[in-house]
Every structure is written in C-alpha cells, then in structure tokens.
Amino acid sequence: MRRATSVGGTVTGQGGDFLIVDDPLSPQMANSATERENANEWYRTTFYSRLNQADIGVRIIIMQRVHEEDLSGFLLDRETRTKYKHICIPATNEDGNIKPKSLEKFYNKENGLFWEDRFSKEVLDDYKSALGTYGYAGQLQQTPTPLDSGMIHKDWFKIDRYRKDDATVNFVIDPAYTANQKNDPSALLAYTYQDNKWQIVDCINVHKEFPELVKFIPQWVKKNGYTTKSRIFVEPKASGKSIVQTLVRETGLNVKEDKPPTKDKVARVSDISASLESGRVSLLNGDWNREFLDQLTRFPAAKHDDMVDCLVMAVNKEIWGGAGKVVYFN
Q1: pTM above 0.70, yes or no
Q2: Same structural domain for residues 117 and 174?
Q3: What is the pLDDT of residues 76-103, one digit of tens each?
C-alpha cells in the first residue's frame, strides 16, 4: 500500500519501507528562508524516523534544485552526506556537475544534451527565456546558483605563478558573529597593489569564535608576508570593533577599523567591476583559488559572499585612496 502526505503533514504512528520525498519545495517557496527551514527540519526530525526497519529501509529524495539551501543542499552540506548516494542529471553537460561521472556516457558527445528527444536545444532555450538565468540553472541544470551570474566573470582574473616580492602586502578582514557553521564565516584576504594592479595573495574563510580568531589573525598575516609597512583593515561589523581593540592592545600589528559601507553589496560590486573586467586584479596560484572564484562568479546568489566583501574592500582601498596614511600602533 501507499500513503501520501505533504511536507509538514502528520505522519505520527505511520511507517514505511520506502520513504519517498518528491519536490518538497516549489521555486516560489524556496525564496523563503522560513519555508526552506521548515521543509528541512520536517524531513530531519519527523519524516526521517518513519522507516519500519531502519537497517534495511530506503529513503529517496527526488527533486529539482531550487536553492543552495533546499533539502538536497541541506543534506549534501551536512556530515551525514556520505549516507546518501547523490545522482545529479542536468539537462546538458555544460556545467560539469554530472554525478556520478559514469553518467557522462549518456550525454550526446556533439551537443552535450542528455535527453534530446524531449529536451532539445530549442526547448531548453525556451525554458531559459521563460525561467530566467537562476530558474534555468536550478530546475534544468541542477545548479541552484548559476556558475556565472553575470556580475563577475572567472576569465577576468589571471593566475600568477609568482608573488610580487617587492610589493607591500596589505590585509582586509570581514569578521563573522560566531563560529557556527550555519552562519557566514570570517573572511581574510591578503593583497598587493603596485603599478595600478592588484595581486590577491591569499583569501580564506574560517569559522572561529572571537578568542580563536584574534589568535589566528597574527599567525595568518605573518605567513602571508606581513611587514611593518603592511596595513590590516577590519570591517567594523559583528566582532570587528572588538578585534581591532584587542589586536591593538595585544600585538604590534598595524590594524584599524575600515569605514562602514554606505551602499548595498550589489552596488559595491558594481563600483569595482570595471577594475576587475579590465584584468587589473590577478590571483597568486594556490589551493584557495577555486573557492574564491566560485564565490565571486556566483555572486549575488551564492550562500556566502564574505570573500566578495573582502575583494571589494581591497580594491576600494586603492581606487579611492581609502587607505590613507599608514598608522602604526605600539
């Protein structure tokens, strides 16, 4: 027999050998953080435990991707993700997110289509026109944020093999409120500016509570070339003011609060886009490049944008002369 219910529906006293969740969120519901959290918590705390025999029962989730934090994203981002076999079949192979990779053989080698009889190029172009970039990326390509949102492009950034050793390394920090993995992380970026060009030396995201973060910052900046000529600017949000006060009191680092932003994030990225597009910002080759570029190219729809904030801070420091005079703290 089969029993049907809805997300959030009552399943008390009921059980099954196969638990099947089919599209727990509509695209409209996915825009609401409350609706997303309700669906995820319902699955985790209520529906998950309804197997008659947990050691042999099966849980199956069938859905289009409608948000990075939809049910699939929620499960794939958790430590329990190894319990699930993830099968991802985008309409075309252009995004390279086919899972498992063995499914690639089913895609047309000439046009990259998976099911040409039903989803031809003409049909997909029509869907893209109707759904828009974001809707098409999630519902047809199973990539809930487009790999390239249009604001920042991957090919704007050259990858450098060597650091500019004669240039002073400066730093910008976008601190988070807590170390909670569900919240935005703290982001730290190291860069040089010479001959009207920026080189991003390193950029990382970390989840650390305040005491660990203020211990980590001196170690990280020194590892990335901090000298007495360097400057460290901290965005004065969250724990930013306390970080500056503590580092000034306990270290000899040249650190100060940055000016608080007066525009929203999209407007701030728009302000620096010409500098990025002209190829004036390069990246020092490193393991961090992929995460950095992934966050930039998905902006403004990515789950986190702290690295983007740091890049904006670094570029604006030199465009507008925001760094001002070097201030040394003893």
Answers
A1: no
A2: no
A3: 887 566 688 999 999 999 888 899 999 9
